[in-house]
Amino acid sequence: MALFAVYLVCALVGAWIAFWRAPEWPRYNLLLAIAAVPQIGHVLGIRISEMLVVSVVAMTLWCLCNYRIAGVPMVAVGAAFNALAMTWHGGAMPVRADILAELGYHFDPGVLVEGSKDVVVDHSPLWLLSDWMVISTGTFTLIISPGDILIAGGVVMWLLFSRTAALERESSMLACHSASHAETRKNLIGHSTRPALTRLALLAAADPALAERLLHDPFDVANAHPHYHVTLDAHDRATLAAIRARARTVGEFLGELAAEVDGF
Amino acid sequence: MRSKILRALAAALLVGTIAAAAMAPLAPPPIRGPSTTIVK
Q1: Residues of A with CB below 8 A from B23's CB?
Q2: What chain A residue is nearest to B23 in terms of C-alpha separation?
């Protein structure tokens, strides 16, 4: 079967590339096998048009599960092109009779070509998606569709670039995580850019009497704590004076002080 | 080396399955009279 030889060549090329360069492995590959079985049956002559639905659904699910992997979206588009043309023609890939005639093959329209998924048509509204691109090496002729090219391109892209893309994705996720972690740390209450004022706020919160004294005379008390010395700079002193002017009670003073410490 | 070979085999299986599931090329037999199944 010439078509199976084509599939074998694709597999060998894939193996050769994967030997030298590790790709990112897709998931749920059983779906691919489920999609392939009806198609292989079609090539072998077991033609049940409804089986195309099984292939399309399984292939769609596989592509959805692996859409993040490089190349898979291209495979999905190619498979969709082929599936569209095949669905329009009852589960078989259309190939125009005049294209076959140019190559010396004379088939009547409606003929299913043995050992392939193709049906010969006179004309198709979706002829652009059908098998019409001829690759001939003299002894071997292959007629492919745009969908086949996209699928082959997607597979090559997957083999060559999926690992790099996955590494880039992981590093960007790490960078994003680090940035958000740093942002979270920055925004944590208690991580103030004013350490002296923070120390004073904690002391005041722990000792209401100290808070009371700070409210009435912040400068002397701040420098005269019996156990902890707090050195306030001019900015801190100005802030305390402003808070003292606004606050009337200890609670208001502590609330204003906490807000200043947190940078609000 | 063993892991590379296993990787290559797995890739071959996967690529072959993708090709069988989604690709639909036509590789006509050498011209010596058409071998067809007529359905219409």
Answers
A1: 6-7, 10, 78, 82, 147-148, 151-152
A2: A148
Question: How far does the CA of residue B2 sit from the closest CA of chain A (Å)?
Answer: 10
**Confidence (pTM):** 0.65
B34 and A107: CB-CB below 8 Å? yes
End-to-end CA distance of chain A: 76
Using CA coordinates, name the residue in chain A closest to B21.
Answer: A36
- DSSP character string of B1-39: -HHHHHHHHHHHHHHHHHHHHH---B-PPPSSS--EEE-
* Burial call A41-74: b when 16+ CB within 10 Å, e when fewer: ebbeeebeeebbeebbebbbebbeebeebbbbbb
Confidence of residue B15 (pLDDT cuts 50, 70, 90): very high
Put simply, the answer to whether B24 touches A117 (Cβ < 8 Å) is yes
Alpha helices in chain A (DSSP H): 2-20, 30-43, 51-65, 72-88, 97-102, 146-187, 195-206, 208-216, 218-223, 234-246, 250-262
Out of A7, A75, A111, whose CB is closest to B36?
A: A111
pLDDT tens track for A103-141: 888 888 888 888 888 889 988 888 899 999 998 887 788
At residue A114's C-alpha, the angle toward residues A62 and A79, to 5°, is 20
Q: What is the pLDDT of residue B40?
A: 45
- pLDDT tens, position by position, A4-27: 888 999 999 999 999 988 888 999
Examine the pLDDT at B32 and tell me if it is beyond 60: no
- Report the number of distinct structural domains present in chain B: 1
Q: Look at residue B3 and tell me if it is in a domain.
A: yes
pLDDT per position as a tens digit, A56-86: 999 999 999 999 999 999 999 999 999 999 9
